[in-house]
Amino acid sequence: MKKMINLLLLLFAFNHSFSQTLQTVTSNGNSTSNSIEILNGAYLNVNSGNISVGDAKVSLNAFGNHLNGGYALIQPSYHAVGYNIPLVLNSQGGNVGIGTTSPVYKLDVNGDAIVRGECISSRSGDVGGALTLSNAAKTANGTASSWRLFNMTGVYGNSLQFWAYDNQGCGGGLCHSRLTLMDNGNVGIGTASPAFKLHVNGEAGFSGALYTSNAEGLRVTNPNGYISGWDNTSTVRTGYLQFNTGTSVVLNAENGTFLSFNTGIAERMRIKPNGNVGIGTTNPMEYKLAVEGTVGARKIKVTQETWADYVFDASYQLPSLSHVESFIKENKRLPEVPSAAEVKKEGLDLGDNQAVLLKKIEELTLYIIQQNKKIEQMEKRMAEMEAKQSK
Question: Which keywords appear in this protein's UniProt record, sorted alphabetically (predicted)?
Fold first, then answer.
């Protein structure tokens, strides 16, 4: 192919150089010093090499290659213009076609091509050089029939950007940047101005683990943003961790799930959907706080609506000691105090128990006061009797 093009250029050079008449050739002739001049539409035909020069056609190396209507056509065998021509040189528009007779670009190749070196697209401006990948089968609106890769600057920022276009393009259809790689290394998906090494504007999914090695870990910048967890079907949210600016941090379990706090593989605390908390137990039952184990505290405050002050009211009927004695003999406990069996089965309400114990202490105080009055009366009588005996 290279030899054919060089020979074509050589013949064109001969045709435009200063000419001298060689001779009138009727059979054979040769010259080692003069040029060749072709006049009056005549052409030079070399049968053995299939080379023809003239207004009608130019043929190089292979049979039937010709010049017609401003096109230089080079092909392996003779065809008329309009057939599949391997190489077309358009002298009017400057376009070159390989595998097409109607090139619409400076180089129009109909078929596969291979470049065994650099392929450079260079253009000055905000958009810069570009590479386009098209698929004519993608015809629906919203589907990218063309992808373009741009080396951008200016209003687009110093970046490498991937743009998607449908058949309508920027005239009302799909015409958007999908992926941006900034010159500083930041990558943007859904944003053309990424502020981080990976900046995603929209939802992102990970089928594997997400690792961070910085001291801060994972940052949520939305004023009321949250990190949510979903079930395996990704249709039901089971919980989230929400960060409310200046007010609260919310850890929430949804859709009937509970919160579990573990160390190692062992569950240590559970918060049920109804708010009941179990420590050391997964079933706090009806208690707001159920602890399986020992609880240590420096101070416990119990608020109780009913207290035993009514014992000191004048209208209170203090049980007789004989009644209390009979109850103790029969039940082996004080009245209103739960039995050991009841405590073992039902537990003990600290507030109620304190109120009962206080009531018993207050009743005991009243008994002591009564006994003290009787003792004083007896002492008074004894003193009077001793006084009478001494007279």
Answer: Coiled coil, Signal
Strands ordered across the beta sheet of 277-279:
259-263, 266-271, 277-279, 289-291
Amino acid type, 87: L
Extents of the domains making up the chain: 82-112, 119-200, 226-291, 321-390
DSSP letters spanning 61-105: SSTT-EEETTEEEE-SS---BTB--SEEEETTT--EEES-SS--S
250 membership: H or E segment, kind and range: strand 248-253
- In single-letter form, the type of residue at position 125 comes to G
* Rounded distance between C-alpha atoms, residue 155 and residue 76, angstroms: 50
**Which of 252, 203, 212, 248 has the alpha carbon at shortest distance from 229?**
252
- pTM for the model: 0.55
Instruction: Quote the pLDDT of residue 28.
Output: 59
pLDDT tens, 103-154? 888 899 999 999 999 999 999 999 999 999 999 999 998 899 999 999 999 9
In the chain, alpha helices (H): 2-16, 321-331, 340-346, 350-389
- Dist. CA 53–CA 69, nearest whole Å: 14
